[in-house]
Amino acid sequence: MSDSKKFNVIATVILGILVVVTMVPILMIVIASFTEEKTLLRDGYSLLPGALSVDAYIYMVKQGAIIVRAYGVSILVTFVGTLGSVLITAMLAYPMSRKAFKYRGILTFFVFFTMLFSGGIVPSYIMWTRVFQIKDTIWALILPNYLVTAFNVFLVKNYYTNSIPDSLIEAAQIDGAGEMKIFWKVMLPLSVPTIATVSLFSGLAYWNDWINGLYYINDANLYSIQILLLKIMNNINALKQNTGSLMGTGAVSLPGTSIRMAMAVIGILPILLIYPFVQKYFIKGVVVGAVKG
């Protein structure tokens, strides 16, 4: 067996082991969501549970108003946030990639500076709540922390620099295209891999976000699926109180552990469904965009 084949076999075995190790926690969550509550409390988590049950999912269907609302908030925030993040990131990266732009170095420095230093949690909270007054609004889940990140900007900027030749831009200028037309008609269509990669990064960040909800949201109507899960994990009574206030019902019996697992399954399901469609762009977008330009 040649050295290259040996390497491929060893690499395949190692990666296979890593995949199994990575999948075990997800399988545990899924199985736990279908395990009887009493069995979970008595025996703990297991890949082979003693008693199966769909009580958690039945309960979620019965209390669907809260969960559906949280799911809707997460979908809305992820869609709007990702769209805005990708658009702003691509537009900011464009002048940074243009050698003819006079203030390219200064702009690049300011973006890079944010990767090293930040204002901190307290100043950020004061700015967003007192200056922009976004507390208990949907914008509190969209604007802070995730709308523009320096890493994504440099990823797109490097892709522009390394993958789109200057001669193509010069040809567009000779044909009379302005900067906006070059950006929309030349740069974006040729940047599908990195745009898909940044979209995945932004979408994951928005979907998994609970920090913004924890800091800026007190209104139960604006709970995302992640912050609702956090509330349940911190205090099982939170869902009971929200159920009573939002649906006009009294106290209800909650299947604590299993419903947490069921909500976790619902939380990761969209990502598992979307990732296969962007996977083919992911590696190219990261590898090319990560090369220093």
From TrEMBL:
Family matches, as CDD domains: TM_PBP2
Subcellular location: Cell membrane
Protein name: Carbohydrate ABC transporter permease
Transmembrane segments annotated in the record for this chain: 7-34, 70-94, 106-126, 138-156, 186-207, 259-278
Its membrane topology: Multi-pass membrane protein
Primary localisation category: membrane
Family of this protein: Belongs to the binding-protein-dependent transport system permease family.
Source superkingdom: Bacteria
Keywords: Cell membrane, Membrane, Transmembrane, Transmembrane helix, Transport
ABC transmembrane type-1 domain mapped to chain residues: 71-278
UniProt entry tagged with the keyword Transmembrane helix: yes
Pfam families reported in the protein's UniProt record: BPD_transp_1
